[in-house]
Amino acid sequence: MNRIITSAGVCVMLAMGASLAQAQVGSNFDPADWEYGPRWDSDGEIPIWNPVMQKIKNGEPIIGGTIRATDPRTYCSTVSAGYDFTWIEMQHESMTWEQVSRMWLACPRPAVPGVRIPHESEENIQKPVDMGALVIVVPTIDSVEEAQRAVNWTYFPPMGRRSNGGGQGFSGTMWGGVPGGYRATWNANVVLILMIETLEGVQAAREIAKIPGVDGLFAASGDLGNFSGYRAGQPQYEMLITEVVEAAQEAGKIACGPLGWMGTRPEFMCFQGGTEGSNIRRGAQAEIQAANQRFSGVAESPRIASVLADLSGGCGEIVYEDDCLRAIRGAAEAAGNLSAAEQQGVRTRIMEIMTAHPNQAARIREVAASAGLQIEGR
Q1: Structural domains of the chain, with CATH
Q2: Pseudo-torsion of CA 316, 267, 271, 331, nearest 10°?
Q3: Mean of the per-residue pLDDT values for the chain?
Q4: Which of 10, 23, 84, 139 has the fewest CB atoms within 10 Å around its CB?
């Protein structure tokens, strides 16, 4: 069929051609000179819909509960326990992203999804953010270059290089219906925490903290001891922790650490809480101890139950030595207000912990003694 083109149509076609010609990429095209377009501009102030980011802005502490299991029911129980976010352990566990995805989809609230990834690659950040993660924790950051890569893959352009590929995080079940729209407000709502764990990381900490998009530095209590050869309380170790804290504060970022530091190190404002296994153990032991006391008619102080539960939770599986030593110190101090029989119960439990963890036994005995509770044996 013949097409009839009017003079008006010719003018339109010519105008379109001229417009396209103006938009052609020339040989001197340079992405560095590109002025980012207005597509994702927000009218007025960008809404903050991530409660973790809102608490950071308010100057309030944030706590993440550590998840090492893959059962959605256990995950959902942790989500509802009062944590601000969940800290899925993908650095040291063998779970798959598919398992993580199912847990997050089952219970995206009230504690929002968070994850410690293996390292700062595109794959290890793109997958969890597409699946709905709102808190990204990146371990073993040694340099400004590594930190910048973490920022690049966490944030959408123009701030970063995150691909707009979709996923369950974009869905209405998770964040698809947030105020202002997920894509347009993401860069203002995601929380990125970088872990300083090595001597090289400490050396670069002040420059790392200054990078836009880094929200906090995590002073890794366990691995700073691992890489330095010193433990908490020793001057060399404390020097490293102080450097990380000062780097964060100088840049206006938050300092993060293990939950055992909450209240004892006031400069820290975000924390990694215990595992779901520790929480189950603490709760079960307290419940069983209380039941046994009622059954046997024991009228002793119920504090023994909470003391033993805290010991089991802090030292059952020693991930962070400081957490266990905090529990030992607390139990030893509490024993001073218990009966002789209950004090012996605390001693027995501490001796069981020493037997299970021989490398920490001497330090455990030393901490207990400094708090007023002598532990027999070698």
Answers
A1: 51-268 (3.20.20.60), 277-370 (no CATH)
A2: 20
A3: 88
A4: 23
